[in-house]
Design a protein that fits this description.
heterodimer, A: 231 residues, mainly alpha, two-stranded antiparallel sheet, elongated, B: 75 residues, 434 Repressor (Amino-terminal Domain), two-stranded antiparallel ribbon, 5 helices, 2 strands, 8% strand, globular
């Protein structure tokens, strides 16, 4: 009997993932090793989700730190560091005075930027951090709802959808803003060479992937709703 | 698609069990459905029922679907 219950529980866990940790523990908890191991495994999953939520929260805090750092660097509008892409005009440099290397990126420092270049530089610096913070928030929300056993919580679905759309838009907007900022900074120091426009394909792929996961979760939520109250 | 008419289906499981002197637990055992699910059905909290569940209940209680489920008139 005990082994039947244990195998039924094991089967339930594998097929349905984990939907209600506490109920399983109360309903099927027994003294034999198999079920105890299974309950331990469930609790481990829950701990993983809690760690996921915690990591998301820490990501948000780290993002806030980066934003403050960038604001401190940029807001005074003096010696503002602006990354510049040198891929089209690579520069030879000597590392340590002996090793020859090719620089494809550089940071120039500019001061007294006009309102438009200043806005472009500020936005280009802050936007990647904001996007990463949004991803961290999404992780935190999902981790929290997974840990509570509610895999299809509306909050989690919304977070996934918003993050996915932001990642796809960010994959185009962030590189564009960075090129605008670099061009503005170069123009302000009287240097002119074109910056290459591009798309951040990693962000784009991440956005599309998250969008696909969101779609699957949305279908799951619908199925869950449909089977609610089914006997 | 859920509508406001969902709550108009009344399950007469209580009465059928009383007529037969059978408990919900015994019915659950015979039908192969959990007591929790039968309780949901008995208290009109079910929103859908599988044909297999319906058939099994009717077989055990020796009744028709219409004896088990009735639609209450609109108020």
């Amino acid at each position: 009997m005990v082994s039947t219950v244990s195998s039924a529980v094991g089967h339930f866990v594998d097929r349905e993932a984990i939907s209600c940790f506490d109920n399983i523990e109360k309903r099927y908890g027994d003294e034999d090793g198999v079920t105890t191991t299974m309950i331990k495994r469930l609790n481990d999953y829950r701990q993983n989700f809690e760690v996921m939520a915690l990591a998301g929260g820490l990501g948000v805090l780290a993002g806030l730190g980066f934003i403050v750092r960038d604001l401190v660097r940029i807001l005074p509008n003096r010696d503002v560091p602006v990354p510049v892409d040198l891929a089209d005009v690579p520069h030879e440099v000597l590392l340590g005075g002996t090793a020859a290397a090719q620089a494809t990126e550089a940071v120039i420092r500019v001061s007294e930027l006009g309102p438009v270049p200043y806005t472009a530089v500020l936005t280009a610096a802050l936007l990647p951090t904001l996007v990463l913070m949004l991803v961290a928030v999404c992780f935190a929300v999902l981790g929290r709802s997974f840990a509570s056993g509610d895999f299809f919580a509306p909050g989690g679905l919304r977070a996934m959808k918003v993050t996915s759309i932001t990642l796809v838009f960010g994959s185009v907007v962030i590189p564009t803003l960075q090129v605008m900022a670099a061009n503005s900074a170069l123009a302000s120091v009287g240097v002119h060479f074109g910056q290459r426009m591009g798309t951040d394909w990693v962000l784009f792929a991440a956005g599309i992937l998250l969008g696909t996961v969101w779609y699957a979760f949305r279908r799951g939520a619908r199925l869950e709703r449909d089977t609610e109250g089914l006997v | 698609m859920p509508t406001e008419d969902d709550g108009r289906v009344h399950c007469r499981l209580d009465e059928l069990l009383a007529e037969r002197g059978m408990t919900l637990a015994r019915l659950a055992e015979l039908v192969g459905v959990t007591v929790v699910n039968l309780s949901v059905l008995k208290n009109d909290r079910a929103r859908a029922i599988r044909f297999s569940t319906l058939t099994a209940i009717c077989d055990v209680l020796q009744c028709e679907v219409g004896d088990l489920l009735v639609v209450t008139p609109r108020q």
